[in-house]
Specification:
With 403 residues, the protein is α/β, with parallel strands linked by helices. It is 44% helix and 17% strand. A hairpin with a 7-residue loop joins β1 (33-35) and β2. The longest helix has 24 residues, at 379-402.
């Protein structure tokens, strides 16, 4: 069949560039040590999840999920605007608004099934022929796709280039301007210059939309994310935080001035036309937020920071390049796609699960190992990772020198 033959040909081309992705099946809860692909007696030490505080399998969160299912059932049954908005959803939104509220004016929060959906909703609700979107070069795919779905004029500015962004803002005569950026860039682990971006937005009367997927729960003294980390407060801010990473469960929320959120309720198609997430998830997330905001959350963040510092000081790389990230995302640039795959395979043979990230997720010739640390890891876990990485890189360096 010609249609299938065409797909097979395209798949072979992906293979030739060492770019085929593979789905692995986990047989245990998300944790530092996981059973994978049904291999009996084989447990991998995982450095690949975004469960930054170790809450995905936290006993209190699991108990809350069970309690939520018993109280509200397994599903919501309808969209939020029909009959699917449960008391669990409402209480979670109130808690989230209060949590991030110190950095927003008249804050209100809206819960979504996923971060991808939240970003699509935000951009599509604001996008129109009279709107200009200024998108950071390294933004997440959901922000890129959200911009593509709008009728807005979408302009990409170079990574961290404030001068280039200011020039674009000054030249734009759009009625509505929206600057869109990740806070923590998911493949590099560096932070956007949010204070300077906010200054530009206030100067040129533009909204600043911050995707804090990898900052919420981690950054800031209380875990309120990038806004707390930079001590920002402004009515120009529109904040998106995901709840399947540091919060350990699933979904996302947008928080902003109550008028902005009401506009989303009226105009955000991904919110209006989607069945609400199961109430049990929202019920469990309320417990996650309590942990993040409390003393346990503070202790988890402190432990995570100690692990980040330990890994950075323990690696002695010469051929590979360790990016100087201060976040739980610790990338190691290897370069060629196949070399990154080989390194990941060598780690797997020694019981460590570290993914190889390749284009188009990252730029060409920057294939990398994306190490992610969790507060559930121990110092011994990180010591083992650093030791094996150093040995693998030294072996590759010796081979390169010989040739």
């Amino acid at each position: 069949m010609k249609l299938l033959d065409d797909l097979e040909r395209k798949l072979k081309a992906i293979d030739a560039r060492s770019m085929r992705r593979r789905v692995r099946v986990t047989d245990s809860p998300c944790a530092p040590r996981m059973k994978v692909d049904g291999v009996e007696g084989c447990e991998l030490l995982a450095f690949c999840s975004n469960d930054y505080l170790g809450l995905a399998a936290h006993p209190r969160v699991v108990e809350a999920m069970q309690e939520g299912a018993a109280r509200y059932g397994a599903g919501s049954g309808a969209s939020h605007l029909i009959s699917g908005h449960s008391r669990a959803h409402a209480l979670l939104e109130e808690k989230l608004a209060a949590f991030v509220g110190p950095h927003l004016e008249q804050a209100r929060a809206l819960y979504f099934c996923t971060g991808y959906m939240a970003n699509l909703a935000m951009l599509s609700a604001f996008g129109g022929m009279d709107t200009a979107i200024f998108s950071e070069e390294l933004n997440h795919a959901s922000l890129i796709d959200g911009g593509r779905l709008t009728r807005a004029d979408v302009v990409t500015y170079p990574h961290g280039d404030l001068a280039a962004l200011e020039k674009l803002l000054a030249e734009s005569d759009a009625k509505t301007k929206l600057v869109v950026t990740d806070s923590v860039f998911s493949m590099d682990g560096d932070l956007a210059p949010l204070p300077q971006l906010l200054t530009l937005c206030e100067r040129y009367n533009a909204w600043l939309m911050v995707d804090d997927a990898h900052g919420f729960g981690i950054l800031g003294e209380h875990g309120r994310g990038a806004l707390e980390h930079f001590n920002l407060h402004s009515p120009y801010l529109i904040y998106m935080g995901t709840l399947g990473k540091a919060a350990g469960v699933g979904g996302a929320f947008v928080a902003a001035h109550e008028t902005v959120i009401e506009w989303l309720v009226q105009r955000a198609r991904p919110y209006i036309y989607t069945t609400a997430a199961p109430p049990a998830i929202a019920h469990a997330l309320s417990t996650s937020i309590d942990i993040i905001a409390g003393e346990e959350g503070r202790a988890l963040r402190k432990h995570l920071q100690s692990l980040i510092q330990q890994l950075q000081t323990s690696l002695t790389l010469r051929l590979w390049r360790q990016l100087r990230s201060t976040t739980a995302i610790q990338p190691i640039i290897i370069g060629e796609n196949q070399s990154a795959l080989d390194a990941a395979a060598a780690l797997l043979e020694q019981g460590l699960w570290v993914p190889a990230i390749r284009p188009p997720t990252v730029p060409p010739n920057t294939a990398r190992l994306r190490v992610t640390l969790s507060a559930a890891h121990t110092k011994e876990d990180v010591e083992q990772l650093a030791s094996i990485l150093n040995a693998l890189e030294q072996a590759q360096t010796a081979t390169a020198l010989e040739t």
